[in-house]
Design brief:
The protein is of the alpha/beta class. It has two domains: 24-83 and 203-414, Zn peptidases (Aminopeptidase, 3-Layer(aba) Sandwich), CATH 3.40.630.10; 98-190, no CATH class. Helix content is 29%, strand content 28%. The protein contains ten helices and 18 strands. The strands form three sheets. Strands 1, 2, 3, 5, 8, 10, 11, 14, 15, 16, 17 and 18 form a twelve-stranded mixed β-sheet that branches. Helix 2 (29-39) crosses helix 6, helix 3 (54-68) packs parallel to helix 6 and helix 6 (245-262) crosses helix 10. The longest helix has 20 residues, at 395-414. The protein is elongated. The structure holds zinc ion. Residues 226, 247-248, 280, 306-307 line the site of zinc ion.
Length: 429
Amino acid sequence: MNTNSVLLLILATLVLFLTSCNNRQEITQHNVARIISTLSSDDMKGRHAMSPDIKKAANFIAKEFTEIGLTPVYDDFRQTFTLYSITPARSSVTLNGQNIEEHRYFSITNTDSLSFSLSDVSLKEISETDDFRESFNSYRHDNESSIIAVSKDHIDWFNRYRSYFSRANRTMEIDQKPNDLFVISDAPINSAKVEIVNNLDTMHLENIVGKIPGKNEDEIILFSAHYDHLGIVNPVEEDSVVNGANDNASGVAGVIELARYFSNGQTPERTLYFVGFTAEETGGFGSRYFSEHIEPDRITAMINIEMIGKPAVEGENTAWITGFDLTSFGQIFRKHSPDNFKFYADPYPNQNLFYRSDNATLAEKGVPAHTISTTPIDVDQDYHQVSDEFSTINITHTTNTIRAIAQVSELLVSGEATPTRLPVKSVNK
Ligand SMILES: [Zn+2]
C-alpha cells in the first residue's frame, strides 16, 4: 500500500467510526453536582413521600425531563396513584359475651370501619404446640377473614406482632383484602362481636416517567432511581433535614444524566424509559405501582441506580450490581465496562439487597432488573442520617459511574446485548 491509500484507509475508517458513533450528549460533573446539590438542599426538606415537600423534587425532575426533551409517558410526566395510611382509632371485641381488654387483641384490616360477628368469619387457632410465626403467616395470607384464637403460651410473639400492627399500615388497596383479628384466648369461642374504626389518610403520590421512543416500542431499557427520602427528623446537632444526597439524589442524577446522554435526536433501536420512583423509603410503593402497570415482557432490562455518590469498598471507579449471578446482566456490565472502571457482584449478599430495592417487583415478574450501587453501606456513617449531605459526595466518582453505566448501556440500547431473564415467581408471597 502506498502512503496515499493508507491515508485514504485511515480517513475511511475515521468516517465510518464517526458515523457509527452516536454523538451522545456529554455527561458533565457540572450537571451531576447541580442535580445532587439541588435535590439534597435543605430547601427540599428531605423529600418525604408522605409530605407536601416532595412536590418540589417531583417538579424539579419533571422540568429536567422537559428540558432534555423526553416524551412524557403520562400527563406532565406524572404517574399518579393513591396510597392509604390506616391507623387504628378505636375498637371493641366481645367474646362469649365478655368484653376483651385492648392489649389482648390486634386486628389487621384494610378499611376505615368494620363490624362482624363469629358467623361472618372463620374461626382458627394458634395452639400452644403451633409455631406462632408459621401459623400467623399462613392465616394472614389465606384470603379469608378470620378470628384467630392465640394460646397465651405465645404471649411474647403476640405482643411483638401486636405492637407492629398497631402502627400505621400503608396500602395501595383498601376494602380488598380479608380482615383478621388475633386474640389471646385459651377458652373455646362460641360467640364474637367485633367493631373496629380506623383513621384513613389518603395521599396522592407521583412517579416521574419520561421516555425516548425507539424503533422497537416493546423492548424497553428502563433506567430508574427513587427520588424520595426520609424528610425531617428530631434535630441532631441542630440539623433536622435528612438530605439524602447519596440516598438517592445521586441515583436521580444518574437517571437524568443518562436521559440527557441518550437524547441526541436520533431514534434508538430500543425504547428508553427514565423513571424517578416515589415512596421507596416508605415501603417501595412507587416502584410497585409502576411495575404493576406495565407489561413486564416489554422490559428488556431494568437498571436501577441507588446511592452512587461515594466510592465502594473496592475504591473509586467501581460499582456493584445486586443479583449479579441471577441473570447475564452482571456479566454484560463486567465484560463491557470501560477500561478505567469495574463492575462486580454485590459485596453484601447477606443483606438481601436484590429483593429490597425498587427492582424487586419487576424481577419477580421475570425482568432482568438489577440495582447498581457504589456505597460502602457497612461502614457508611451517613446512611439514613442528617449528615447525608452534598458535601460528602464524590462528584468525580459519581460522574464516572454514570458514564460507565452509559457506555455499557449502549449495547442494551442498540440491541447488541440482551440479558437473560429471571424465572417468573408464580405464587403470592
Ligand atoms: Zn435509597
